[in-house]
Design brief:
By secondary structure, this protein is an alpha/beta fold. It has helices spanning 18-26, 46-56, 70-80, 99-109, 130-140, 145-151, 167-172, 183-193, 215-218, 224-240, 253-264, 311-321, and strands spanning 5-11, 33-39, 60-64, 85-88, 94-95, 113-123, 164-166, 197-209, 245-249, 271-273, 283-284, 287-290, 300-304, 330-332. Its EC number is 2.4.-.-.
Length: 334
């Protein structure tokens, strides 16, 4: 039987977690699958483990790259995949029952969707700090396509190893790319820019393992400045089509960094907004700092970039009171 879902699992030195990771995926018998396990330069017993499992389960295919990095390892898996749906999985996470079936159902029910994730549970507890817990709680609260449209420029709204992609949409936007910012966020932004919907199954269907050595903590592509550059790169074409003046709400470090990245993409802020009365009348990056009451949705398009916790929702309320409509007249970017 031809697979309905190709599961892409790149790994490197994951001998201790690979078997558990595959067990959850292989337990799903209602969906015809193939598992493409890509050894990306392992020096432990992981490849031998995959070879043993593959000998007993024809759904598993063992691939090797020699060590080229996650984006190109995923490209290797994609090239070998045969199914119309592509699911992601990392070699140290745990897929929970019915994950693939529910994601296939969601993609089949809505042709506009390009990718469907799930809610996730980070573990083990000792590796989940306050910042990660807040991020996962934020991510898990974003479920519908409208939620993802609203939050896409705040942070990466999908947990990469939890997603299933519609192959047609994935290939239409250029598939996996090796970029200098996070490769998963780049993909979500490209799908969004092309008009594809992003959504989640409203259930926790992946246990997301964390440990100090993961790429998120040591790879320069995951630095905050790289996320800002990615946002600016995909915001700039949208801003170029809007005749209104660009205003950045936030004259502090967060707003200035976004304005700098936007300027590098050809989108210069005409003004900044700040609620600190001491800043009003000054300048930031050569543009005036103005009060919020000066904003007009007929004249201004606003990007909200303020780092203070809780500020985003307060600013949304302020902008709504000024007749600004989110996604039409402003985006939140932090």
């Amino acid at each position: 039987m031809s697979p309905l879902v190709s599961v892409l699992i790149p790994y490197r030195n994951a001998e201790n977690t690979l078997e558990e990771a595959l067990a959850g995926i292989l337990a799903e018998r209602d969906v015809p699958i193939e598992v493409l396990a890509v050894d990306d330069g392992s020096t432990d017993g992981g490849p031998a483990l995959i070879a043993r499992l593959a000998a007993n389960d024809p759904r598993i295919a063992a691939l090797q790259t020699g060590g080229v990095g996650i984006a190109r390892a995923l490209a290797c898996a994609h090239a070998a995949a045969r199914a119309p749906f592509l699911a992601r999985m990392d070699a140290d996470d745990v897929s929970l029952p019915d994950r693939l079936r529910l994601q296939v159902d969601a993609l089949r029910k809505d042709d506009r969707l390009g990718v469907v994730g799930t809610r996730v549970e980070p573990f083990p507890d000792e590796a989940v700090g306050e910042g990660l817990a807040r991020y996962v709680a934020w991510q898990n609260a974003i479920v519908t396509t409208e939620d993802h449209d609203r939050e896409i420029f705040v942070e990466a709204p999908l947990c990469h190893p939890s997603v299933m992609l519609r192959r047609e949409a994935f290939e239409a936007v250029g598939a996996f790319r090796d970029v200098h910012w996070p490769e998963d966020y780049d993909l979500w932004l490209r799908l969004h820019a092309a008009g594809y919907g992003l959504a989640k199954v409203d259930r926790t269907l992946l246990r997301w393992r964390h440990h100090p050595g993961r790429a998120t903590f040591r790879d320069s592509r995951y630095a905050i400045v790289r996320f800002i550059e990615a946002k600016a790169h995909y915001l700039a074409p949208r801003l170029a089509r809007d005749p209104r003046a660009l205003v950045v709400w936030g004259a502090g470090p967060t707003g200035r960094k976004l304005a700098r990245a936007l300027a590098a993409e050809g989108a210069k802020a005409a003004a900044f907004v700040d609620i600190d009365p001491k800043k009003i009348g000054r300048t930031a990056r050569g543009a005036p700092i103005v009060p919020k009451v000066s904003l007009d949705p007929a004249k201004h398009f606003v990007l909200v970039a303020v780092g203070a916790r809780g500020a985003r929702d307060l600013i949304r309320t302020d902008l709504a009171a000024l007749a600004f409509v989110e996604r039409r007249d402003f985006f939140c970017c932090s």
